[in-house]
Amino acid sequence: MANENKWGSNLAFILAMIGSAVGLGNIWRYPYVLYSNGGGAFYIPYLVAIITLAIPFLILEYGVGYNYQSSFTKAIVKLKPKFELYGWMLPVSIFILTIYYSTIIGWDGIYLFLSFFKGWGADPNTFLNVNLLQSTNSLSGVFNFIPFVAIFILLGWFFIWFISHRNLDEGLGRVCKIFVPLLFVVMFIIVVASLTLPGANIGLAELFHPDWSLLGHFDIWMAAFGQVFFSLSLGMGAGFTYASYTEDNIDLISSGLYVIIANCAFENFTALGVFSILGYMSLQSGTPVSEIISQGTTLIFVAYPQVFNILGTLGLILGPLFFFTVYVAGITSMLSTFEVLSIAVQNKFALSRRKVTTILCLIGALASMVYATSAGGYILEIADIFINNIFIIVSVFVECILFAWVFKAEKLIDFMNSRSKTFKLGKWWLLHVKYIIPILLVIIWFGGMHELLKIKTTESAMIVTVLALILIIVSWIFTRMPAKSQDWFETEERIK
Length: 496
Ligand code: PHE
Description:
It is a single chain. 75% of the residues lie in helices and 0% in strands. It has a single domain, classed as Amino acid/polyamine transporter I, CATH 1.20.1740. It is an all-alpha fold and 496 residues long. The structure holds phenylalanine (PHE). The site of phenylalanine has 14 residues, from helix 1, helix 2, helix 10 and helix 15.
């Protein structure tokens, strides 16, 4: 039992964290966000978000996770027993995220399969929305079940179960050690190939053409903070959970830094490839780059197939490589989102990893079937806004207050500094985690709500209400169920 939940080495931890961070957010979301928020000018808010939010908060999450060596929920129970409900709400909300994340991975699985013979045909847009997803832009399609999509979503869940039900180092650790470096190698090949395409410079010029005037707009700052949050898996309990499995000698400050550098290098490098390809397409079709890009999801499932169509035989190589990379990036991220609730349930009910992962994968797979209907894409978009704009920000705010003030971030400094081979924590760090981050979060939250109010239809309000109810009721049930584990209330702390 002792090693069921421990990384075999510090390298496994770092690679698993990079695997968690590098995901769909880096490949389909980032290039689009960068482009639509001022191109080169976006780098200013992006860097500010990394320095003021990501670095200090990631280190705080790692430190507290390391200290408690337990799930997020068990740590909250130790810290403030009255907060157990909140301790469940975070993992449950990440489980809701996992369910829709599995859907995008499922779609990508379909495209990976189709890419071997360009099965999306000559009109990828109609293919995606009409033939494949049969999208209705409302709830009306919820009874139209699409078995083909369902099979691919279920396949993703099977992989998660297959990897997660083993002991940590044999499953998750081993997969990340093999696939995370592979992800970087394959992406490198794709980007280099894309950079050599005729017209690549048109796309790159478009990407880096900075629109400085946007810096004065609130939206671009919000977009930068939102991107950094999602892309680095911040505040979702993933970093907390992975850090809790580390060995005593881990250097958490440097590890956090490596994860941030690897993630940001990956997404910026990917953006170069994406825009070279778009430049190529713009040259071939005579359409300006700005018209090719419409929306994140469309970019990879519509614009990419279009490009692979024009590329001929090269498309038959780059296509499968590209969708394979997205698949691997998605799975290694989903492993981390799944883990947060899984370990919390294992802790409270003294159940084995094998049992809990099997039950949760079955529940998750069943719930994800709602996305295998014609209303799937519509519900997914609202679920994403609910988790990423409304819930997570409030939750991270609570986390920051609990960790920095109740737990007392000061306690971490000496211990973390004594192991750090890079930089040391000091007053600036405390200032960030205690004051700057909570204040920034309040600002981001109001901005996020403002976005949300723009799409206020009765149907979307209904979906948000249902999701909120599910979140509260499920978390409440977990809280009320009596603990089966002897030590649920007696978490040991590693940092004395
Ligand atoms: N960081 C992942 C991505 O970029 C998504 C993720 C969010 C993973 C939260 C874990 C926790 O796609």
